[in-house]
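Hi support team,

I've been running sequence recovery on a batch of backbones for a student project. Most finish fine, but this one hangs at about 90% for roughly twenty minutes before it completes. I'm not sure whether the input is malformed or the queue is just slow. I've pasted the structure tokens below so you can try to reproduce it. Let me know if you need the job ID as well.

Thanks,
M.K.
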């Protein structure tokens, strides 16, 4: 390795696909923006740490798709191709694995730490539909960022990107992948979102003390050291959460829970664990981990935020910082007898997260049912109600069915899209690209001119019924229900 290359391996940039405000372009002359991958934290050498406030990262992503990865099935492979193309994956890097992971029978390894798994009885849906999985570990997220910068430079004829251009290229690449993901039936089972403090905005000693004394508010109650040992909040020994040889670490939340926060001294980990130099006085990492249903909720909110924004750089930052602020709030030192909740927000923390926007409030979803389960539920719970209505007013059969159809159509959301698309793909049919397209196609099946409408039905004493369809656009323009 040349001396010039060694110098570039000194950390001087944001990490892991980070999205940060750009420093002045005047300070970037001639530096370029090539990522230099080291361990699981990449480097964009044109961005100096001194100019950074925080850095926002996707550090881990695991997504299950409601269709298999089978190369002899072009109808399903075209959806995988869309996803891999959006991730700028070079198919030549593929290595067949002897077995899959996460209960899947088969697996393939692309680039570094990007995995595709498929096959196996345990991974099928309740209706027996095969699934497949995409897993991107820290290094895979990093390599995606590197490819995004390289691809943009290729489009520009090989010109090296400035810092600002590199950050925009990264944000746009995540936005493009999310746009593809939005149209595919999927669910997320894990996503890690990371915020880095490079400038010592929160002094390590003070942060350690607040963690040890529980001067924070969080719905997560259990604290652990790096060895997974529960922390005794009454113990005054701050070094209970020091990782030997790798600096300070604090984990809030159990490993098996749907939320977990890990705070640690990334500079100490880097310098002591990787034997590399870090050109910064401090480097603290806040890693918010979401799993299971909360992961799916967070990814869908992230997708909506990023794909609908005209400024993906700031949309990315605001969401990741907001996700962190949703799991913990550090407080000023408690006065005698004062409740922690009533204490003022710690000023350094308030400044650190000020750009964040809280994600939507988490709500547990109702169980997602397959088309087969819907049919079973209709047989068990709906059939008798439908029979009563039809037998009492059988001459109005079409009106009653249309009314129920329109009511269901207007309530359709992403869950309905995923269920319908999974069944259509299994039948070899083209899936709907969005909820809007699903509703538009549904409206064509309703009596009328095919516009999306609100249905009302009136049952008369003489046994008749009247169905009224009011175009939704007209209702909104009139400002009436």
């Amino acid at each position: 390795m040349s001396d010039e290359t060694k110098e570039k391996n000194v950390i001087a940039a944001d990490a892991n696909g980070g999205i940060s405000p750009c420093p002045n372009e005047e300070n970037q002359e001639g530096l370029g923006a090539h990522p230099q991958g080291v361990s699981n934290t990449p480097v964009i050498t044109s961005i100096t740490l001194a100019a950074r406030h925080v850095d926002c990262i996707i550090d881990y992503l695991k997504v299950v798709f409601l269709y298999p990865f089978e190369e002899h099935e072009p109808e399903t492979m075209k959806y995988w191709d869309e996803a891999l193309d959006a991730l700028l994956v070079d198919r030549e890097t593929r290595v067949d694995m002897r077995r899959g992971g996460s209960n899947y029978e088969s697996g393939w390894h692309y680039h570094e730490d990007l995995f595709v798994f498929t096959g196996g009885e345990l991974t099928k849906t309740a209706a027996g539909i095969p699934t497949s999985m995409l897993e991107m570990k820290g290094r895979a997220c990093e390599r995606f960022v590197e490819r995004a910068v390289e691809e943009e430079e290729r489009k520009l004829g090989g010109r090296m990107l400035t810092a600002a251009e590199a950050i925009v290229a990264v944000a746009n690449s995540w936005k493009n992948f999310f746009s593809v993901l939005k149209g595919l039936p999927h669910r997320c089972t894990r996503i890690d979102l990371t915020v880095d403090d490079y400038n010592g905005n929160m002094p390590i000693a003070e942060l350690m003390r607040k963690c040890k004394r529980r001067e924070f508010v969080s719905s997560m109650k259990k604290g652990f050291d790096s060895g997974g040992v529960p922390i005794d909040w009454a113990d005054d020994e701050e070094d209970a959460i020091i990782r030997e040889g790798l600096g300070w670490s604090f984990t809030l939340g159990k490993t098996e829970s749907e939320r977990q926060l890990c705070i640690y001294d990334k500079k100490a980990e880097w310098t002591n664990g990787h034997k590399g130099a870090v050109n910064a006085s401090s480097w603290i990492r806040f890693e918010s981990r979401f799993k299971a249903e909360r992961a799916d909720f967070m990814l869908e909110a992230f997708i909506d935020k990023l794909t609908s924004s005209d400024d993906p750089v700031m949309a990315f930052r605001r969401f990741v910082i907001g996700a962190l602020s949703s799991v913990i709030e550090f407080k000023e030192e408690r006065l005698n007898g004062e409740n922690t909740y009533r204490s003022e927000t710690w000023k350094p923390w308030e400044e650190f997260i000020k750009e964040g926007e809280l994600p939507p409030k988490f709500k547990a979803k109702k169980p997602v049912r397959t088309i087969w389960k819907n049919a079973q539920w209709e047989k068990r719970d709906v059939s008798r109600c439908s029979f009563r209505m039809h037998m009492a007013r059988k001459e109005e059969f079409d009106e009653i069915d249309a009314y129920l159809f329109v009511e269901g159509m207007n309530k359709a959301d992403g869950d309905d899209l995923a269920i319908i698309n999974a069944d259509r793909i299994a039948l070899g049919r083209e899936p709907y690209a969005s909820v809007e397209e699903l509703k538009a196609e549904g409206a064509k099946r309703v009596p009328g001119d095919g516009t999306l409408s609100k249905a009302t039905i009136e049952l008369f004493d003489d046994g008749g019924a009247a169905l009224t369809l009011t175009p939704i656009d007209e209702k909104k323009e009139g400002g009436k229900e």
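--
Follow-up from support: It reproduced on our side and the slowdown came from queue contention, not your input. The two ends are 71 Å apart (CA to CA). No action needed from you.
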